[in-house]
Automatic annotation (TrEMBL):
Natural source organism: Streptomyces chilikensis
Catalytic activity: an N-acyl-L-alpha-aminoacyl-tRNA + H2O = an N-acyl-L-amino acid + a tRNA + H(+)
Record-level Gene Ontology MF annotations: peptidyl-tRNA hydrolase activity
Pfam families: PTH2
EC number: 3.1.1.29
InterPro entries named among the record's database cross-references: Pep_tRNA_hydro_II_dom_sf (IPR023476), PTH2 (IPR002833)
Keywords: Hydrolase
Name of this chain's protein: peptidyl-tRNA hydrolase
Amino acid sequence: MTTSPFTTTADPRDEKPQYVLPLVVRLEKTDPPARTDALETSARAVLTMLADPRSTGDGDWADAIDAWQDARIRKVVRRARGGEWRKAQALPGITVTGGSAEVRVYPPVPLDGWPRELAKLQVSGTDLHDPEPPPPAGPAVPVLWLNPELDMSAGKTMAQTGHAAQLAWWELSDADRAAWRDSGFALAVRTAPPERWPDLLRSDLPVVRDAGFTEIAPGSCTVIADHPALRR
């Protein structure tokens, strides 16, 4: 099974400066996004940041991305509405839009060095719902399978789907990465059927094991990244 960087076991990365990838979801009172769309948009936002030319080579964000990936791979999702969202949009980053969700992702920042405009945004309160159950994912679509035994807030789950998408990205060849990028990072987030979850855990697909900083126990398996190219 693929080793996950999202664990609490002793690791040399703990000795390095810690960074966090900020994500902000637009959450207006009168028109909140659907939960599954927010989860999928968050995952695509992480992939969009990783694939952006500014995040690699001599790009403006490359040093921050490298420092972040050398340490624990932390992500924190905050929420914004109205004027807060407009201020968040003004900071360097990328906004990714889904069917009803908007998520802005920013270059990594030191764990205690959030920009003021983002630091004051709330983490809690991202309890979202689907108006109806999402349809089955197509056979060729990468699926991020949620652990059916865990109950996580939407914000926490958005971070976890971002982790899973990143693990899949690391495992893919350059050609498969390019194909995924050209598809607009097509993916689906679905809760795994309880009877299928044990088989997914044994499948050697990338699995996120949470560090246990919030909501759930350390080492909990939260999401499995099932990209068709990883099953070849």
